[in-house]
Amino acid sequence: MSLHSGYKGPGDCPAIIPVFPLPGALLLPRGQMPLNIFEPRYLAMVEDALRTERIIGMIQPDAEGGGPPMAPRLYKVGCAGRITQYAETGDGRLLISLTGIARFRIESELAGATAYRRCQVSYDDFSTDFEPRAGEEAVDREGVLKALRDFVEVNDLKVDWGGIEEAPNEALVNALCMMSPFGVREKQAMLEAVDLKTRAEVLIAVTEMELVRGNGSEPTLQ
């Protein structure tokens, strides 16, 4: 299912959206994120979204920002996605897929009314997100591929090199960022990168730092 053709600029997206706080979950424009929804408040969120514009904002909680466990403070920047796939399971869960539209900045959080969280947001700082493949020519593709090769070799991973070689720069960089095994701060830095070129540079830098660190974890790229 393709994105609604009306999302051509910041003014086309709703200013008030439900938000789904999820650490380590990075959605980027035109990226695909599968989600398994089972908590009652998020089941209600999805059902309400399906009745309206099908938009949900993915955002990370800020672990150092404080707040109660059920409502931690959020980073200020997230990414809005539209529900483009939806299925019910026999045990009450919902399986959905979000397709990223554009990043947003939280202006305020709305109180009450729903069990899930809703925010008033602005997309004005991220107008280029509405332009597919914007800035691709500036990406250091070879640098991205080298970092990936080194990471794959060190961690003994298997990847689809054919698909990677064929992917345009935007799809390559955003997919690698979304699937990367790095932490919340690193994911947030990738999300908030000013443009695709900078996001690629952050990805390369984080990957190189991880290789230097040489920790004993076993990250996976799917």
Automatic annotation (TrEMBL):
Keywords: Hydrolase, Protease. It comes from the Bacteria. Residues 17-211 form the Lon N-terminal domain. One of its GO terms (molecular function) is peptidase activity. PROSITE patterns: LON_N. Transmembrane segments: none annotated. It holds the Pfam family LON_substr_bdg. GO terms for biological process: proteolysis. PANTHER family: ATP-DEPENDENT PROTEASE LA (LON) DOMAIN PROTEIN (PTHR46732:SF8). This is ATP-dependent protease. It comes from Methylobacterium gnaphalii. The lineage of its organism: Bacteria, Pseudomonadati, Pseudomonadota, Alphaproteobacteria, Hyphomicrobiales.
